[in-house]
Every structure is written in C-alpha cells, then in structure tokens.
Amino acid sequence: MSVLGTNSKTALTSRDIANLSGVSQSTVSRVLSGHPNVSAKTRKRVTEVLRETGFVPNASARAMRTQRSRSIGLVVSTPVNLYAMEVMREVHEHVARHRLRLSVWLADTDGNAPDALQALRERSVDGLIYTSAVDQMPELEADISAGAPIVLMGRTIRGIPTDTVAGANVQGGRRVAEYLLENGRRDVALVGGRAFSPGREIEQGFRQRLESLGSPLADNRIIYGDLSYGSGEHALEQLWNGKKKPDAIFCVNDLVAYGALDAARKMKIRIPEDLWVVGYNNITMSEWAAYDLTTVQLPIAPMAEISVELLLRRIDGEQTPTPKRRRVEGALLVRGSTAHAPAAPSTK
Amino acid sequence: MSVLGTNSKTALTSRDIANLSGVSQSTVSRVLSGHPNVSAKTRKRVTEVLRETGFVPNASARAMRTQRSRSIGLVVSTPVNLYAMEVMREVHEHVARHRLRLSVWLADTDGNAPDALQALRERSVDGLIYTSAVDQMPELEADISAGAPIVLMGRTIRGIPTDTVAGANVQGGRRVAEYLLENGRRDVALVGGRAFSPGREIEQGFRQRLESLGSPLADNRIIYGDLSYGSGEHALEQLWNGKKKPDAIFCVNDLVAYGALDAARKMKIRIPEDLWVVGYNNITMSEWAAYDLTTVQLPIAPMAEISVELLLRRIDGEQTPTPKRRRVEGALLVRGSTAHAPAAPSTK
DNA sequence: CTGAAAGCGCTTACAG
DNA sequence: CTGAAAGCGCTTACAG
User: Fold this and answer.
1) Which of A91, A171, A214, B124 could crosslink B119 through cysteines, CB 3.0-4.6 Å?
2) What is the domain extent for residue B263?
3) Which chain A residues in 299-328 lie under 8 Å from chain B, judged by CB atoms?
4) Sequence-ordered list of residues with C-beta below 8 angstroms from that of A221, at least 6 positions apart, any chain
5) Interchain contact, A147 vs B6, CB within 8 Å
C-alpha cells in the first residue's frame, strides 16, 4: 500500500513505472493525467502496475513543470480566536473540494504575516486568502498592486485594488441600532476597534442609524480596544464606573461581548434585566447557554466559498479591470442577552 | 519590492540574475545559499542585483533538487475546537522557528485525513504531525510501518511504532480522583469517550485511583460520548435524571465540561454548591468567568515543541530502533467549578 | 574562486 | 497511439 518503501529512500518515479510496464515514461505520464492518447490495452497494463506499486507522482516536479503548486495559503489572526477556527474550517472545505492543499499562517498581532507573502513569491502557494489585514501593510499592498493573487476575506484595505469578500457590516451596524432603539433602549454604548475594517464599518452604520433615529452616540459612549476578550471586560468595567450606566452595549465582535458578559457576571450585573449585550459574528459559542448572545450573523460559509472562487479565477489569470468587492448579508439573531426571555432557545 | 512583476508572468530566475550580474548561474546559487566559495567582490555585486530585483528563488525547483519541501503537515480534528486552535498556534510557532511552512488538514469526525497522507506520499510535505488519530486507521498505520515521518501528538495508537508526544493522562486521571475524594466528594461520575486514547487513559487512571482509595466507580456512573459539547449536555441531563444525583462530574475534556456546565445552568443546578465539575486540557476559555473550570492542564506548548523536534529528526533520517514516547505532565488547576470560592481567581 | 554540466521527476509539444 | 527529447529552475559534484 505505502509507496514510501522501507526507508523513504526507495521512492518510485514514473520512469520506474515505465520500465515495469514496458512503455515509455511519456506514456505513464499520459495514463496518470488521463490523457486520451493511450490505447485501452496500454492504459490497462500501466494502471495495473500503478495500482500494484501504489505509485504517487512527485508534487515538486509537477509543480515545476506546470508552474502551479496546487496549494493556497490562508492567513488568520493569532489569539484564541474561534472565528479564525471557523474560517479555517470553511476555507479548508472549499479548498479541498478543488483538490488543492491549504497552508496556514498565523498573523502577528498587527495582522501581518510576511512568511505568507514570501511563500507566494517563491511559488510555494498559488495564491493567498488574507483574513487579518489592517491598513498600512506596505508589503502586502505592494504585492497586490503588482498583481499577486490575493483575496481579502472579511477585511478591506482602503484604496487597494484586490478582490474582497466581506460582511455587510455597515448594514449590520444599522440593524443593531434599529433593534435597540425599537425595543426601548435609551442609552446605548459601543465597544469597537478602529484598527480593523469591520470594526470601522459596523461603527459607521451604528452611529449613522442612531443619529438618524434621533439618538446620536455620545463620545463617552464609545470605547475602543483591540477586540480581545480582555478589551470587552475592560470596556464594561469602564462604562459601569460612570455615574450613569448604559442600558445596552453593542460589541463589534462576539469575543469582546463574552468579555463584557463575564465582567458583568463578576460584577453581578443582571443580563438582560440591567443591561443588554449584543455581539457580532455569531460564532458557535454564542449559542451556548453561558453567553446566549444576541448577535449579527456573519455568514462565513458563503464568504469562504466566494473567496476561494475569486482566488482561483485570479490564479487562472483572469484580468479584471476593477477588483471584485462582494458583501454578504447576515441576519440579527435575538437571544437571551437582550430579550427578557430567550427568543431563540437552543433546540439542540 | 515585489518580484511578481506586473503580471505574474515575469518571474525572474537565477539565470536572469546571473546575466544581470555578469556571473554564472552557479555563482548566483552559491551567493543565495551562502556558500563560502565566492569572492567578496563577486558576492557584493550579485547581492546588489538580488536586492534591486527582489529576487526570490523558486521553491519547487529547490524542493526537486534537494528532495525536501521544507513544509510539514498538521492534522487537527474538525469541530469547534479551541484545543485544535491552540495546538495550531504552538505548532506553527515552532515550525516557523525552523523556517518551515505549515500545511493543515482538518480531519473528519473519525480523525481521518487521507489527503494529508497523500501529500506526504507526493512529497508536498516532509512529515506529518497527527493530533487526531484513533485506533483503526489502516492507511496511517501502513505508512508509519513503512517508515514515514509521522509523529502523533496528544494521541497514541496501540502497537504502532511511531514517535508519540502526549499528556501524562493516566496520572492526570489519578490526580483528579484523589482531589475529589480528598475534598469530600462521595459520589463521582465520569463523562468519557473510548474512541480517543487520552479518554481511555484518563479513565484508566481515574478508575484505578478511585478503586485503590476504596470508592470504585459504579457502572451507572460512567457515560461515554463523542467528546463534543453536546455530549456534555446530554451526560449531565442523563445523570440528573437518576434518582440519586452525583456530587461531582469529571469530564475528560474541557469542551465536554462546558456542555455539562451549560446544561446545569439551564437546569438551575448550582455550581459548586450542588455539583462539582472538573475538566481536562485547560484551554483558554476555562479561565473565563462563564465556566471558571477546575481542570487538568495539558501543556500544549512543550508538547508542540517536542513533536516538531522529533519530527525533524525523523525527516533527517534518524533511525531509532524503538519509537520515542514522551509524556508531558500538567498540574491540576483548581477554580470555581469545584472550590466553594475560587481558589485561583482570574487576576487579569 | 568560477563555470559548464548533470540531474532532480515530471509535462508536453514534436515527429513518426 | 507512442516515444525521444526538451525544459521547468534550481543544487552540487567536477574540472579548471
């Protein structure tokens, strides 16, 4: 079964198969690739030898000839990030469907992953999906401008001409503003982050809609952080230290909301009686009873699918005058962190 | 800066650099690899051209010549798995330290990842770290027996001669048994899983120690599941439906414990007053106030480091008569899910 | 110290 | 339908 031999030293080549089958190496290659110009009889004989030996062609040799590694890279951000895990799962699925391999780089805290760009340059991967880009990444921008096959997923960079697949975040922020005001919230706060594009977009939609509904967000009702769990804890403590407490907090991602909810738990703030909390992304844990978080769904599966499709087209050399920018909408899911009784109980 | 040219069509080769520098292609190669046989003057001239052009050598060509892809593969299991994310982070770090790339495969629910083995056979990766192996994986076992460079991390397979790096699970199970009995628990239950080796080992240590302390585990005090969040919920409900309730539940991983804790939350069972819950692994979330879970630490960082080291040695052809089997110990961390007051409050 | 040359293992025109 | 040959872009003896 295994082709690795007793010692990894004995790897077969297509020439060995040729000798064993009594045909030329070219013919073996044709059989392997399913090329039509092979007689049924020859094909059968070679196929038999292939099966017996368990031969597997060498990927580097193929890559060198074809100029394709059949591998793509994914850059995800680093900390305990359940969002990243779900992104990986979905991207992996679509990549595997195209019979490609997936290499992964964990970006540093600034969202940077120079090794991934290096791998692209040395042709170890055919393209990259970036899920952690921030503004001001000169290296990345230079490669993109030079036509490198890179897709941004869930992130945008101002003024950079790449294909982008992201959530409809402005709209998501708007939707939350409407929901909170329509349900009687009078003093809402935002826990955001300016370093990442989704954070900025959500904030924009949220602010605009609050304003248009006549309840503009006061300056002391916005707290910016690094979008970590700890930043959510910290934001809640800070808001609760003021003399007037907000009656709702909107966190621009679920992880931050968990931090806020856990801080509330420690401070004996009752959810949702004393305070409503809303998140963004709807990662799996948000459904769990510990958080039971009202949140805006970020449809990762379709985003992953579209990202892979766009990337493959770029790799195949499709030239588009203007980069494609797709936005994927998600619904607001109401759960126990805002409704007085859970509106969407876990029915698992 | 970018070497990708305007159109990805213009990738330079070392021959181009040779022409631009007025030396042979061999010399360019020597400069790139830092070979000593290059005069200072020549080296300087070539280095300058290299810098100006931003040349990056082609990885496939190098791999073909050197028979090394400089890439290793990691197989992790699929569902919402924070453990997997932490494993990835640590392995990625050590892999990057050795200037290697990391390819990732998400295994199916049975822990299988045929694509990873295929990548190894076609030499796309130099070796694999498996974190999701179960017994009965004929393909994997065949390749291992044939000498393929594969390390099992956090898993063992009976009778298979590979390097293995795992937690000291029998000991961990023992430790929990002692802790519970020494702290007055009289009726403890185990939520386990037989499909995975850590589950079996933890169970073994736990049972043995309970027995040696005079409180053997009754048959109706063991519930087996698939080690998912849902299996924890389900186990708790089942245990609580009996006429006599246990006063402590030991879950063989943290994710299962979260399920149990959330089921308890819904059923208004007070933790720890009515029930103690203990987990295993100590993933990041276990420290969060929502769960505040007493658990046995699984030291992923050292496990990842050792796994990478062992794998690289195997790849470098080190022949060991007997496979190396390392066990890494972790401490029991007492938190609020068992102590009446948290013994180790989050001091963040 | 330097260059010409072989060769890693494939794919793919080209000739028959 | 089949084979001999070129060539992908490197590394590394080998000869000088």
Assistant:
1) B124
2) 169-299+331-338
3) 317
4) A187, A188, A189, A190, A246
5) yes
